[in-house]
Each structure stands twice: as C-alpha cells, then as structure tokens.
Specification:
This protein is 25% helix and 28% strand. By secondary structure, the chain is an alpha+beta fold. It has a six-stranded mixed sheet. It has a five-stranded antiparallel sheet with strand order 12-13-14-11-15. A three-stranded antiparallel sheet has the order 6-7-8. Helix 1 (7-18) runs parallel beside helix 3 (68-81) and helix 1 (7-18) runs antiparallel to helix 9 (316-322).
Length: 325
C-alpha cells in the first residue's frame, strides 16, 4: 500500500508493479488539482521516456518541464495499465496488527476482523463515503504523503528539519490563451541579470531569482526578499520564524497578487491577463526548510503470529524522483 498519489507515490507504484507487486495507492484528494510546473532534469526525462512518455509531453518552449497535474495523469495512466488499484478520497488512518485467522491469506473481515497479515486502515472522506472505514492487507507500506507525513507521524517515526537561510518562494499562475503564446520562457538569477533586477528594485520589488514557464498556465516562481514583501504590504509582519511568515493569517492575498503582477508585467505579460480563478493564483511557501527522516524504514513483527511488515518512509523507487518531482 502506498499512501499519497502525488508524483512520488505514483512513480513508486509503477516501479513496484513492474516488479510484480500487488499495489494499492490511497489519497485523501478526489482530483488532481495541483498547477505548479516542475523542471525536469535530464535523467528524469530519460526515466519518463523509458516508461513510454513521449518527448512532446515533457518538452516546453525552451526547457523540459511538466505541470504537476499533468505528470500525475501520465503516471496514473501507466499505473492503471500495470494493474495498480488507485483509491481516491481515502484517508490513511493507521496500521492494524494481524489477528490469527483461518481465512485465505491476505483477506480481511470488515474493519476489525481477523487477518493473517498486517493491515492499513483507511477512511473514505469523499463526498459520498460517509466516513466508511476499511482495512487493506499489506506486507509493505510506503510513505508518500509529502510534508504531512501521515504514516511517519502515526507510527512516531522520528524526523528532523534542516533550515538554510530564510527563503520565501512565491508562485503565481495566470490564465493562458492563444494571444500570449509568444512569450519566451526564462530562468534568471539576480547576479546574472543585474539590470533587470535593479529595474524591479526601483519599483520596490526585490528578487533573488525568477523563473517563467508556459504550461496549462503562465507560471512564475520567484524568491522575493522578506523585506520587500513587508514593505509592499503582502506580509503583515516580517518578524518571527519562516513557518509563521507563510501562515495565511500573515498574508494579504490582494497585495501579494499585486506584487506578483508587477513582476509578470515587467517581464512582458500583458496587464489584462487574469490570474487563475482559485487560491493557487498567488501563494507563498517556505523555500528553506527540508524534512529529514531519521528512521527511513521500520520492520514490524507481530509477537503472537510472527507476521512481518515493512514500513518505508523513503521508498527506494521514489528517492531519486524526490529531488525533482
């Protein structure tokens, strides 16, 4: 069982299914809605094309990249062909110990019946699920739940965080149509484009770098300085640790959009191009903190039955993907 149907979880499913495993992936979301565009390094492109993804599906105007939602759909297609069971709207609850049973190996009985394997309890959180719970038999459980880390947290698997200098990321999405296809993609760092960045600075916009890609949206990702966001009014306060800075209560969404619009306009996006009509239009995130699993795997063994199960918080098939996906 894999918990999390993001790119990491789905890529792990594909790898396991190719090796003959019976794989189920659960995810509390019921749809793929993530808009962010991911840069693809050469070896990731080779991995995807080796799985049958065409070059045209991952090549942008100037760089290899793909939208998160699009990548999930491609990996879902592969997973389904390989027989992976995909269970949207199912939230991971916890691990259930095996109970002695005369039933065929791997079968479960409701939510609390006997089983000769470990189980993974999940809850249906879809609109029609009414909170129904069930137990999925599993010999291996993979954590692919992102920063929420539901498996690790439920089993108290220790992890730490590593922080670099405070760095905020700002992502902005604008609607794309045929009239704005001529814009060129770019990836600029302040030290190599000083004239451009100094011109922005005179308008109160200070950035360390900025990237623009065309996908399903006009996608901008940048690292603004905390001071510039505070002076712009996008941050209500610039004091405190970075986790507090990016809390919704500390962000003025309208002013954050104005800040993002200034950057996009400076680099050629017409002012009449609207933001996408959802909360992903402009978002701040912590660009400086990374979580590290101190116990990347755990082997469980039932004292009464001797049944074993592996809990993997860092699946080998997905580790390489984590750096870019």
């Amino acid at each position: 069982v894999v918990v999390g149907a993001g790119p990491i979880g789905l890529r792990a499913c594909v790898a396991l299914a190719l090796r003959g495993a019976d794989v189920t992936v659960v995810d509390r979301r019921t749809a793929y809605t993530r808009r962010n565009i991911l840069h693809l390094w050469d070896w990731v492109c080779h991995d995807l094309t080796a799985l049958g993804v065409s070059n045209a599906e991952i090549l942008g105007k100037s760089f290899y990249h793909i939208g998160t939602r699009r990548l999930q759909l491609l990996l879902t297609r592969l997973a389904l062909v390989l027989g992976v069971a995909i269970r949207p709207g199912m939230q991971y609850v916890g691990v259930v110990d095996p109970r002695p049973s005369t039933r065929p190996r791997g079968r479960t009985e409701g939510t609390g019946g006997a089983s000769d394997s470990y189980g993974v309890k999940v809850r249906d959180v879809s609109d029609t699920g009414k909170g129904r719970e069930e137990v999925l038999p599993a010999n291996v459980l993979l954590e692919a739940g992102g920063t929420a880390a539901p498996v690790m947290r439920s089993l108290n698997m220790p992890h730490s965080t590593a922080s670099m200098n405070t760095a905020l990321g700002l992502v902005a999405h604008f609607e794309r149509d045929a009239s704005t296809r001529d814009l060129e993609e770019f990836s600029y760092a302040q030290q190599f484009k000083q004239r451009e960045f100094n011109a922005l600075k005179t308008q109160g916009v200070e950035l360390e770098n900025v990237v623009y890609y065309q996908g399903e949206t006009h996608y901008y990702v940048m690292t603004p300085t905390t001071g510039a966001l505070a002076r712009w009014g996008a941050l209500k306060t610039a004091r405190g640790n970075i986790a507090k800075l990016v809390q919704p209560s500390n962000i003025d969404s309208a002013k954050l959009k104005t800040f993002a619009r200034k950057v996009a306009s400076h680099f050629g996006l017409p002012d009449n191009v609207p933001f996408v009509p959802d909360r992903q239009a402009a978002q701040l995130f912590d660009f400086s903190t990374r979580a590290i699993a101190q116990e990347p795997a755990r082997l469980l063994q039932c004292k009464t039955s001797g049944v074993r199960a592996l809990i993997d918080a860092s699946p080998p098939s997905a580790v390489c993907c984590a750096y870019i996906y």
